[in-house]
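Quick note —
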Amino acid sequence: MNNMTLNGLNILLAQQQTAQQDPNAAIKMIGMMVIFAVIMWVLMIAPQRKKAKEQDLMLKALRAGDKIVTASGIIGVVLSIKDRTVSIRSADTKLEILKSAVADVTERGGESGETKS
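Predicted structure written out below.
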């Protein structure tokens, strides 16, 4: 019975010590989570948002006569642009693709003045 009493005292003392350390540990844990979230933002989310903005600007600047490459690797010349789609000519084939499928503009051309930036 005496041994059980000592074990009980040891458990109470251990609980009291961890209770005193909990506020500091909780603050450290929250701080680490905030730091981790900032690192994730800088390394992953911010560059992805920047790339999406660049893609959006490229699609808004798309004009008839531009040479493009689609996400699937088709190379073509833009014939006309609608709200969601782009008509292109690739070799002897006319295709209608989604604007989101345009991966890159390789050469600017078309009716409007050629401004390359």
